[in-house]
Amino acid sequence: MTAKVIDGKAFAAEVRAQVARHVTRLKQENGLTPGLAVVLVGEDPASEVYVRNKGKQTVECGMTSFEHKLEADTSEGDLLDLIARLNADSAVHGILVQLPLPGHLNSDLVINSIDPAKDVDGFHISNVGLLGTGQKSMVPCTPLGCLMMLRDHHGSLSGLNAVVVGRSNIVGKPMAQLLLGDSCTVTIAHSRTKDLAEVCRRADILVAAVGRAEMIPGDWVKPGATVIDVGINRVERDGKTRLLGDVAYDGAAAVAGAITPVPGGVGPMTIACLLANTLTACCRANG
Ligand code: GUN
């Protein structure tokens, strides 16, 4: 079997176009322009690329982008003051603090200082609790993008065996909650899981979110399974920098029913979902 390639780039372009249409209507009918504030502390090159892309796509969708770039040695107090100002600013509907933060800053404290209604990352403890109890919340962007692609491919996910490899707060745990919400039988596996290969081979849906290049070989994939590869790993190979997923693509694509490529799979969906969450936050804030 050769897997169907799930085109995240095209899917994300559709989501962004839908968001842009909705933003145009909001402006015309309600005089509202959704605004997204992105806060970057320090000069991590990968984070700078993400933040630039977020800003560009926010504007392309007709929303306002507010970028706050702070020095790497910014104090926690100054960062909390900025977040308090953004919380109080009615032109700002979504706030994203780019992670990871420099080591002297307490990420939990910073994230939990964001107004939960503006927490478009869905990382605030209130949103985590709402998602875990099946209530209306802000849903983390990467898992939301994965869920949208899975629903599009399968229709109903009910009763399917889903294995999520990786237990991060940003991807693994919320992904598992979303799949449970769609009535999958969910296993969260990780680096300490016994017989990880066997666990993966039971998966109708295999989500890889471990951050290790090509950690999952093709013979861990059940024939016909859907493979969602969240990994974006920069690897030097043959003198070139390559982007590799957490799944060994060629081997997995030979047995899977469907697979997301890297790049062009999950990555573009993350920013598209961030824009969708910003629109949602704006609509909720204005009744
Ligand atoms: N760093 C890597 N991914 C993310 C994300 O989805 N949100 C934030 N805030 N930081 C990140």
UniProtKB/TrEMBL annotation:
Pfam families: THF_DHG_CYH (PF00763), THF_DHG_CYH_C (PF02882). One of its GO terms (cellular component) is cytosol. Belongs to the tetrahydrofolate dehydrogenase/cyclohydrolase family. Homodimer. It comes from Szabonella alba. This is Bifunctional protein FolD. Catalyzes the oxidation of 5,10-methylenetetrahydrofolate to 5,10-methenyltetrahydrofolate and then the hydrolysis of 5,10-methenyltetrahydrofolate to 10-formyltetrahydrofolate. Its EC number is 1.5.1.5, 3.5.4.9. It catalyses: (6R)-5,10-methenyltetrahydrofolate + H2O = (6R)-10-formyltetrahydrofolate + H(+); (6R)-5,10-methylene-5,6,7,8-tetrahydrofolate + NADP(+) = (6R)-5,10-methenyltetrahydrofolate + NADPH. NCBIfam families: PRK10792.1, PRK14186.1, PRK14188.1. Residues 6-121 form the Tetrahydrofolate dehydrogenase/cyclohydrolase catalytic domain. Pathway: One-carbon metabolism; tetrahydrofolate interconversion.
